[in-house]
Fold these 3 entries.
Entry 1:
Amino acid sequence: MAVVADATAPVATLRNKVSRPMVVAAVLLAWLVLFAVLRGRQTLALAAADLTGLHRWLNDLNDSIGANRNSNPLFLYFFNEIRLAIDNLVTFVQSLISQPTGARPVPQIGWLGVVGLTGYVSWAVGNWRVALLAVAGFTFFGLQGLWQQSMDTLALTVSAVLVALLIGIPLGVWAGLSDRFNRIMTPFLDFMQTMPTFVYLAPLTLIFLIGGASAVIATVIYAAPPAIRITAHAIRSVPETTVEAAGSLGTTRSQQLLKVLLPMSRRTVVMGVNQTIMAALAMVTIAALIDAPGLGKTVVQALQSLDVGTAFNAGLAIVVMAIVLDRVTTAAAARTETRRTGGPLLKWRRPLLVAGGAGAAVLVYLSHTYVWAAEFPGNGSTGSHIASAADTTTTWLQDHLSGITNALRNVITNGLLNPFQTLLTDSPWWLVGITLVALGAVLGGWRAAATAAVCVGLLVGTGVWSDGMTTLASTAVATVLVMLFGVVFGVWMGRSRLVDRLVRPTLDAAQVMPPFVYLVPFLALFGATRFTAIVAAVVYAAPVAIKIIADGVRNVSESTVEAATSSGCNTWQIITKVQLPMARSALTLATNQGLIYVLSMVVVGGLVGAGALGYDVVAGFSQGELYGKGLAAGLAIVLLGVMFDRITQAAARRTRA
């Protein structure tokens, strides 16, 4: 036994000495050496106008589906019926608040009625402050000259949220009650939330055509997972003792659900509604790429023509709508808690609600009957002034700050992006694939390596390998920048509660805004380049990474920090030797979330010159002959997202272990 122990001791010692970072460094070094030898060989490059056999087959499939849409039983009795039902819902909501109906030149409820209803509902579910914010926000849409576009966006959002909640809340309750169903649903929800929003659009247009129905269906797919997850969590969070007490009184399962579980989880469920609404608004604006009406369409058209002023005005309206919807639903969640505990004005609330409802009904009647209350007065001069000011500011920034912005762009582009992109695109495809699989094995284990191998193989099959590597380069560079910001600000917030209280509201507000909006200011600063997409991706993804790291640093035991301080460590040593190493799982999770957020934003940057997979998807929508390539590019984005997600999640689990 002693001999065996002596023989295995050197192996164990070697294993302890060879750390995971050392293995990663060895893999990357081997890649660089082989790249120097094999550069430019077997790169699978494909010109922008070139198509592979898969792309042509997808084009033919699209043509075939279009020709047989009204004769194929699957479409005739299933997909077309779904599209018709969603279309009817969208048309109904639009006829109420945004689009003329029948012989009427205006919607059934005009601007005055919509503003009155918005204020009343906001007050009823929230409080008077939120009601004032909602009234001011909706009035601002009209002053911008964007009333109809805003109402179109609201109509699509409301339609999608209704369908998402009708599906999501029952499934969430089921997942909360059944462990088996929860295990079945979790992989699907993970996959749905991993996929960038761009990717939902192309396959849905293949089945449901372009327009409002496809936009709503895509939005439901994207917005339903938060409702399912949060509802399930709310049901599971109800104390078991309470459920057991209700059971001991002879209540049935349905009575426990209706009388105990749902009432006690109401606040959390309402927060799930908040997340569903925010996700729906973000997706509805992006769905402008498939001809969905509303503010997103205005932003897309302005971005494509580089009209910063118009894009800024419409983007500001999207931000205002997001803030209003977020504040109203957040206040509604707080109201459920107040209702449970009781409040000093609770006895007056019912008569006040009745009076307010009567006032709102009068405004709705006026807006239905009189043109002056139906069409928003004025010509939107406020919006013209905002757009003009944005154009003037853009011109000033480009004239006076171009030296700084160009220098920053050149440093990042030439110092980081170009070298890494060259390494990815000029390496043989199999070398990059082996490297990704090896990194997956080292960081996440054999399952992550197997996932990476499958994703690499499928990515080669899509025919857009080179564009995929270009997108991968932008995503990697942006993620590195996100983590730099995340560590700096996360550590600062984690070590100072005052800083956390000051910075966190800004981060929360940043996460409310749809991704489209981030492109507008950076388009003004940096022009239509891939760097614009990278900066927008960093700003979009940084808040979530910062908050995760801040929470991880704060959760490090105070006694551990005090012990390090008493041993003579300075602040830098405490951060680098104690807090960051002990928050390693939070860092890995932040990397995971940062990657997913960055990937979704980088491909949206195809609208402002980012090229690669994002451009392929956009071109597929606008040019029929490139539809198949755009669909393949969407699949490539999914594969990159799944590969990143599996590797980083597995790495996070191994770190916690």
Note: Residues 280 and 477 are 29 Å apart (CA to CA).
Entry 2:
Amino acid sequence: MDRFPNAANVDFHSPLDLSKAAAAVLDAEGRVSGWGASAQRLLGHAPEDVLGKPAGRLLAAAPGQRLSALCRTHKPRCTVLDLSCRDGRTLRAAVTFSPLEHLGVAATVVVAAELEALRGWEAQLAMLQGLATESTVGLTIFDTDMRVVWGNVSTDLELAGIAQYIGRPAADLFPEGEFISRHHPPDEDQIMEHVMTTGEPIMGMHYRGRAPADPVREHVWSCSYHRLVDARGELLGLFEESLDITERYRAQERLSLLVRAGKRIGASLDVRRTAAELADVAVPQLADEVLVDLPPAVIEGRQPPTGSAPGHSLLRMHGRTPEEFRTSPVSYPPSSPQAQSLGTGRLVVDAAPPEAPDEEGPAASHSCLFVPLLTRNTVLGLATFRRSSNPDPFGPEEQTLAVELAERAAVGIDNARRYTSQHAAALVLQQSLLPQHLPEQSAVDVAYRYLPADSRVGVGGDWFDLIPLSGARVGLTVGDVVGHGMHAAATMGRLRGTVRTLALLDLDPAELLTRLDGLVAQDSEPHANDGLSDEALGVTCLYAIYNPVNGRCSWASAGHPPPIVADASGSVALSSLAPGPPLGLGGLPYENVDLNLSDGSVVAFFTDGVVEDRRTDIDSGIDRLAHVLTWQRCPLEELCDRAFSSLPPGPQADDATLLLVRTRRLDTDQVADLELPPDPAMVAQARTLTEHQLEAWDLSELAFTAELVVSELVTNSIRYATGPVMLRLIRDRSLLCEVSDNAHTAPHLRRARRDDEGGRGLFLVAQVSQRWGTRYTASGKTIWAELAIP
């Protein structure tokens, strides 16, 4: 199909050309002596209607003397006449009168064409003249051998004279140029050959190079190639259109660079990587090298220093990964452009910068931009944009672009600095809230692992704890706050402290969770505005008490997965009791579950992150952890590693906390029990038993103090109880003295007056013991005191 279906309407022949115009011949008297077919087509008059008749009859106006004068002229004359058509129309025409006297014939040849068509043809000629002499579009004609034939004025100016290139191949015009559009062959000879062979034009190719008339600056042209054929359709060669689009191309590059900078700079929340991202974006499109200098405080996440001399105590960033990262100190004298930029907070241009002795970089720079990294009116550092291989100085648009990139980098560096600071604060908070060293005790061996889901922040809402209780018992707790980060960690810390406080009241697990549930519900009320109530609505907790004297473990759960128990034989048991509701919901009671554990049993307390994953259900996770516990004879640390190594690969969806305990039971010779009837005379027997037992334990030097404590505690119990009194002595890391009775009223420590006969017993107990207290049981209460073993 013809690419130009209307090409026949494009005709550069003049309307007055004899092949197209209306022609007639007039004799010396102005009569029509010749009438061509073209004249008949233009005016509609047949030859028989006009031949031999005066030509003035063809004029629309009175003939006058004008026509006679034109017929008697001795040289060609042109004029505009209004001619009468056969159909009555008046046609304004351009008419040329050419005398034939020199041929010995007294006649005049008249050629006429419609004036409007002539004016259109003249406009076409003016357009061609403009393209050749005034247009900024470069036009170059090549012959079939792809050698230069002709170029217009624009091409002549770019080549500093077209004449020197006539007859030379196209490659000689811009020997170091290249096509940067890749959707066609990048070689110009191939492009020309393709156009001449196929007739298919190639348009909009971007070409980059240096024009002979301006060899310093690099230009970009948009080039198009078209085949040239003559009137017979034979190939003449091709012509090239080239338009200098350097400024538009650079503007598009600047825009694309800003878009790329918006996507890349500051996405890592890491100071060193943000500095590297600035260099990655700006090189080589804007500069050959970008250097970033920051004060040490910014790199460490602290506030940038104020009041210090600009250019002092800066560190230059090197490397793009944490493994490659290093810094080198730089310092700029007060008179340097770098110090000026840092001091004023403005861009400084140095067209021919000298090399500083303490700077790394190319041997020479043609141009430098020193741009402060400014955000919120605070200078964070300095970015240096260098050009070494590119001799072009930084223009105003490029300076504006450098400032924009530096502002984006400054925001990213400031965000990274704040993140580093918050991360450090969060880690300190987490370390202060979670136990770093579990207290020494005899009831259990312990190992634990904690893996936050947000590995970047490193903090989450899981917690665990081991709390030494009276009677050599231990409290064990694990909990989970929904969410991650500072709020979840703060909520976790507050709840962990609350659990520890309630545990020291010697509450049983169900009672402790009931009280904790009330506190969480109170914090979750609409008027609670401490910022933690949202997290508190998603809190689960498990609390257990293990007694090494009888091997009994009691636990209760508030929406938390129950523990998994592996006994000494390796048999794994799962609890069938469903957990109670999460904390803060209320409405349902919490229940205690009692287990009798053999010596050496392993109990796993864990959070959802250990057994639950997006790709597997919680039952599969529990089975996986239970399988690990079948290796319960392994050291607890190894079991923890096995459990975490069995987690599915990839990022964690939730915090994962695992607390493993291996139970121990006290030997029977470490515990002495004596049941006493409620008789005051039994106080002496209690002292005697205490003395004998301490002798058996080689603790005779504690006998006096222990007898005093036992005497006072037994006396109080016999005085106020209605049933038998139980005395228990336990030799552990300290000497424990416990007296239990069926009364629910606890004695209170008070200061007796001088004339009081009693009231000094508990005061003496408090003075001679390390700790003392009261715990309530299902049948009454137990008063205990702890004495340090020398």
Note: The longest strand covers residues 214-229.
Entry 3:
Amino acid sequence: MRLTVLDISIVVLYLAAMVVIGWVMRKRARKNKESYLLGGKSLPWYMLGLSDASDMFDISGTMWMVALCFVYGMKSIWIPWLWPVFNQVFMMMFISKWVRRSNASTGAEWLVTRFGSSGRGVKSSHNVVVAFALLSCFGFLAYGFVGLGKFMEIFVPWHMVQPYVPFTIAPEYVPHLYGIVFTLFAMFYSILGGMHSIVLGDVIKYAIMIVACISIAVIAMLRLHGPGTQLAVPNGWTNPFFNWHLNLDWSGLVPDANKKIAEDGFGLFGFFFMMMLFKGLFASLAGPAPNYDMQKVLSTRSPKDASKMSGFVSIILLPVRYSMIIGLTVLALLYYNQLDLRTAKGTDFEKILPAAINGFLPVGILGLVLTGLLGAFMGTFSGTLNAAQAYIVNDIYLKYIDPHASTKQVIRANYLVGIVVVAIGVTLGFFAKDVNSVLQWIVGALYGGYIAANMLKWYWWRFNASGFFWGMASGIAAALVFPYIFKNTLPLYSWPLLFLISLAGCFTGTWLTPPTAEPVLKQFYKTVKPWGCWKPIRVKVMAEDPAFLPNKNFKRDMFNVALGITGQCCLTILPMYIVLWLKLPLLITVGMLTVIVLVLKKTWWDKLEN
């Protein structure tokens, strides 16, 4: 164990600070439900943006992305389109302000804005989005739990701890024990202080992460550009562009990397990319999933602030995160033979991140990085926990059990629900095979069932609550069954069939039931102001209010989205070019970013409205 007293002190100080924040913020959080779950909708957009970026900067995802960067090189920047990462651009340009205009507390409550509070299918649509939200929250909790345990096991080997623990434990459950310990810290401050403590904790953690990530990038540059140093990588590794086939051959360098490419199913990279783009566009048009991201949007002060917050996420997240990713990748490539990545099943590339950190970072920087990544886990965990609490308390407890509960009862319910949710998430973590398996199921399967219904709700006036329910229900059911039918298939490749099943449920449920009540549709159209197939409603709204200005910004929004995605890619690859010091690509990237910023200043920032 390389941790020194200074490194351990930094970690302990951070954990103590999180406990204090939770204790101090508990009074502010207890004011009412909105203060607990949404920070009273009073927090500045840049703090919420930092917090949202912090929630996305998690240990498990970063371990996965470092593994991808090692194996796939510059081409790894495309693989996170599985989420898809560019949904933040759609959010930034138009969807965040649409979501915020509802003034709701959760995604399920938002449905009242679209479908009303009564009528056929409304209750079912509400219940199915709550079920989806909880499934995804539990999935993310298990995903974070698995990654944290694997991460900590390298820094704190069990044989060093065993003499001080009054019980024995099987080696395969050591990561789970570590996961439980740090989960308790995250649970304490997030349950006590609600959104207030989560956001403040995330801002502190992100400040630490900025220092840690830049330090790693600088260390990697100094070691890489020393005399006689050269990266041992296959041809094409430094090229972000690709053909139909991946054409990366690790034979003679790291043969197990070829094995990983085959296991991942990314060999036909052109086809894989097309599938990601196809799914990603629909997923982005569907808007945010009901998790911590949507809760941050609903917590902003205004629709304009919601757009700013979503735009800020990419700017603050990608360059910082990829400074760490490329830095650790370079260190791992330079000193690969010194890393112990072996397991009973072969090389585990997800262990590169903790192994490189533990092996090559100096005293103090090691403690900062470890603290930042622990904070990353705690931030993601607490944000997801807050979202799960919001759905259970707001959309189950207050809706069906005790609609007239006092503020004190609501806060107590949040405390109890938080403990139960953590227990369930940890239990599911025991059954998860690894980080990648949980991730693939969440983004490839479960989210696939979410897309059709949540896309149609924005853009088609005739779509109703019954269509939403049957679209979501059929999609989620297919997502749960498909892993048993398509056992050796990447979930992304079976997604089109899942999408068609969900789409059939949407249309069947919609056409077999009457439209949503006209007053609800008119109020939604006037309040949210979406573009799309709304002509019958638009005509009636304008007949009643000739001064009403409909949304005719489709072309401008799509132009801004195309620019934004290009800019997002530039932000991603910028730190990679800096660390590798590829001068011409770096100059081209900086030039493209400059032009994009100047254009978006006129076509997006100056056009923002509430």
Note: Residues 174-224 form the longest helix (51 residues).
